Amino acid sequence: SEEQKASERLWAISSLVNQATGDAFSGLLLVEVILQYKRWSVKRWNELYEDLPSRQVK
Q: Residue limits of the Phosphoacetylglucosamine mutase AMG1 domain (predicted)?
């Protein structure tokens, strides 16, 4: 089923990135894999980002 496939993908992702070490390289590789899977370019991914004004009070 689709839910089973999604669960297996999430499990595989968790084994790629070591959260304890903060390994940025494996994180970058993970982003590349996801972009390839979705058939997105970095430009397309970047277009999703919308910069919002800061609400910090000093």
A: 2-40
For the segment 39-58, the average pLDDT, to the nearest whole number, is 88
Q: What is the mean pLDDT of residues 10-22?
A: 76
pTM: 0.63
Does 53 fall in a domain? no
Show contacts of 25-28: CB within 8 Å, 24+ apart: none
- For residue 36 the two structure tokens come to 């390839």
What burial class does residue 15 get, using C-beta atoms within 10 Å of its C-beta: 0-12 exposed, 13-18 middle, 19+ buried? Answer: exposed
Number of domains in the chain: 1
Q: Residue 19's domain spans which residues?
A: 2-46
**Any residues with CB less than 8 A from the CB of 26 and at least 6 apart, and which?**
16, 17, 18
